Amino acid sequence: MSQTVDRALSILPLLAEGPADLGQVADRLGVHKSTALRLLRTLHEHGLVYRQSDQRYRLGARLFALAQEAMENLDVREIAHPHLVRLNETCGHTVHLAVYEENEVLYIDKVESRYPVRMYSRIGKPVAITVAAVAKLLLADLPEHERRAVAEKLDYPSYTARSTPNASAFLRELEKVREQGWATDLGGHEESINCVAAPIRGADGRVVAAMSVSAPNVVVTADELLTLLPLVRRTADAISGEYSGRTPVKGTA
Questions:
Q1: What is the per-residue burial (b if ≥16 Cβ within 10 Å, else e) of 80-91?
Q2: 3-class DSSP state of 136
Q3: Bridge partners for 110 per DSSP
Q4: Cβ neighbours of residue 48 under 8 Å, at least 6 residues apart?
Q5: Checking phi first, is residue 13 left (phi over 0); if not, alpha (psi -120 to 50) or beta?
Q6: Burial level of 169, CB count in 10 A (0-12/13-18/19+)?
């Protein structure tokens, strides 16, 4: 039975390359045409493949509907949280998870620092969008015309001397973040707080969330915090892999 299931599932990536006839399917699976036909009929009955008028098979609409439903029900916070906790246990600093919704960047998860000096950020609270590292990652992923439109509508408060001063500077920073694949806030919101962040991507490669590690200068310097960037990026990649389905959840078959 497991071999049958394996063969049936192997048909789907083949048809993702384009329509194929019975002979091509049989050859790819290394089975007789009668076996391939039985598998195709079963997949057809479930709407996962469709037989065209030229007798070739393609992926069925039901498969796309299932994929869309699965994507809509994915909870990036639920997937990310165990990874954020492990990162916090390793480095000891505050870890945030943020998303971009309705022209705001919001924290949707937070794991507190183990140190006495803590940040005042709260889950559900918008971030300082012009300086926050997570905001830079989320906005940098937008198409260029959207990035420009957002940047031109924003106010640019002078939180500190390192705050982003205007739309032109913000767009340059977003372009830099887009190219390097990570972001920082080194005293841009609060003089004493530094932050490094990395993107979480979906199956299509787009940024769906951003995570960060933040710490005050009294705990670690900015240079010391930047040494954690490889760890932050590995954590973000692990979350991305699980969220997009590229890597299996540990403990599952």
A1: bbebbeebbeeb
A2: helix
A3: 96
A4: 12, 59, 60, 62, 63
A5: alpha
A6: middle
Give the whole-angstrom CA distance, residue 220 versus residue 224.
6
Verdict on whether the full-model pTM lies above 0.85 = no
Query: Any idea what DSSP says for residue 100?
Result: E
CB neighbour burial string for 187-215, b if at least 16 within 10 angstroms, e if fewer: bbbbeebbbbbbbbbbeeeebbbbbbbbb
Q: pLDDT tens digits for 218-245? A: 999 999 999 999 999 999 999 999 988 7
Helix ranges restricted to H, the chain: 2-16, 22-29, 33-45, 61-73, 76-91, 133-140, 144-153, 167-180, 222-226, 229-244
Name residue 68's amino acid: Q
CA distance 32 to 146: 53
Q: List strands edge to edge, sheet with 104-111.
A: 104-111, 94-101, 207-216, 193-201, 183-186
Question: What are the tens digits of pLDDT across the range 97-151?
Answer: 999 987 899 998 999 998 877 677 788 888 999 999 999 999 999 999 999 999 9
Q: Report the alpha-carbon distance of residue 63 to residue 60 in Å, rounded.
A: 6
